[in-house]
Amino acid sequence: MDNEKLSSKTAGKPIRCKAAVSREPGEPLVIEEIMVAPPSPYEVRIRIICTSLCHSDIIFWKLKVPPACFPRILGHEAVGVVESVGENVDEVAEGDVVIPTFLSDCGECADCRSEKSNLCSKFPFRVHPWMPRYDASRFTDLKGEALYHFLFVSSFSEYTVVDITHVVKIDPAIPPNRACLFGCCVSTGVGAACKTANVEAGSTVAIFGLGSIGLAVAKGARLCGAKRIIGVDINPEKFEIGKIFGVTEFINSKDCGNKSLSQVIIEMTGGGADYCFECVGLGSLVQEAYASCRKGWGKTIVMGVDKPGAQLNFSSFDVLHSGKVLTGSLFGGVKAKSDLPVLIKRYMDKELQLDEFVTHEVKFEDINKAFELLIEGKCIRCVIWMDK
After folding, report:
1. Cα distances (Å, whole numbers) of residue 169 to 20, 101, 116, 177
2. Which ranges does the record mark as transmembrane (predicted)?
């Protein structure tokens, strides 16, 4: 009821609220008062309940070259409540619980109408500083200077404005500190295993990098019935963590002796893994993953975000003669409006467990602590609460 009263008072007007602003690359975020404009046509203004920190936020927080730009409001993994809607929005209404997504699902273009793709061509994915339709920001600081958006979400703010093609209405019964994970981590990892790779029961999977995305891949592979799930990391502590998520065997890539990582995996598996997932964002590791997957039917799925301009090199002879598949997977191949509700139902039905992802929770004013925890490798996911 209080939310409805607030919404009727604030709809159509700018809202003054707190945001954690990234003003300089790699510098602590500054919590400051900002102004959030009302939504334009096809837009939704959302009060963020909680948000979690993803490694992609860290990458673009540190980055000093384009597409980095400052000052910016980062954050793209969140859940919130619709405060007000712009014209031509009938999919959601004030008070609805929603997940904002960094990938658009317009429902109109050939890609969104097809089951084969989750890459909208009407509003394509970009690391863009503005709203997708209008090339303008909905954020200003108290001096009237524009603050840049991030991945069309910008959840490190008490209020944000998101295009309706980037908003998914969800069941309000799901706890917010679990719901937010569907905005990136869980959908990306579980989706890559279940949808992009379509892992077969009884198969062997190798996961390169056991961060939160790699662990979510392990969850997805286990849901699909994979028999062996090999985790690869340079941190031996990740094996004990990985076991909780379904990893059955571990390789420390620093301890391969005079053999390459792919040689070790080929020997372990008798010819290579059926599916390899690269979850770090290193060209050399993509090539190692490709070399590690089985000839004839092996699939390598690239999920890690590499530095801008990074290149991959493959032997044309090997590509022709190995018969393997190499593919990228953005947001796990998940179509936000149709697939997210299915994933969330799997969580609500206790088929998909998420509790082990959330290792830390902090108040909004302690957001820089979340950055420290993730950089130091001390957390899987840290949830940031806006009002606790």
Report:
1. 25, 11, 23, 16
2. none
In the chain, the N- to C-terminal Cα span, in Å, equals 19
Length of the chain as a residue count = 388
Query: How remote is the C-alpha of 268 from its chain's centroid?
Result: 31
The pair of three-digit structure tokens given for residue 93, joined into one six-digit string: 């209404």
Cβ-Cβ contacts under 8 Å for 91 (sequence gap 6 or more): 164, 167, 169
Residue 167 in contact with residue 91, Cβ under 8 Å?
yes
Q: Render pLDDT for 140-197 as a digit per residue (tens, 0 to 9).
A: 999 999 999 999 999 999 999 999 999 999 999 999 999 999 999 999 999 999 999 9
DSSP 322-353: H--EEEE-SGGG--HHHHHHHHHHHHHTTSS-
Q: How far apart are CA 328 and CA 119, in angstroms?
A: 11
Confidence of residue 132 (pLDDT cuts 50, 70, 90): very high
Determine if the peptide bond prior to 236 is cis (ω within 30°): no
Three-state SS at 117: coil
Question: What is residue 7's predicted lDDT score, i.e. its pLDDT?
Answer: 65
d(CA 288, CA 283): 9
Enter the tokens of residue 4: 């409805």
Coil, strand or helix at 233: strand
pLDDT in tens, 197-206: 999 999 999 9
Does the predicted model carry a pTM greater than 0.85?
Answer: yes
Q: How many helices (H) and strands (E) does the chain have?
A: 12, 17
Q: Kindly state the average pLDDT of the residues 363-369.
A: 98
Task: Give the angle subtended at the CA of 110 by the CAs of 107 and 114, to the nearest 5°.
Answer: 75
Closest CA to 273 of 234, 235, 300: 300
Exposed/middle/buried for 377, CB within 10 Å: 0-12, 13-18, 19+? exposed
Strands 204-208 and 43-52: unpaired
- Alpha carbon distance 162, 128 (integer Å): 13
The average pLDDT across 83-98 equals 98
Q: What does pLDDT average to over the chain?
A: 96
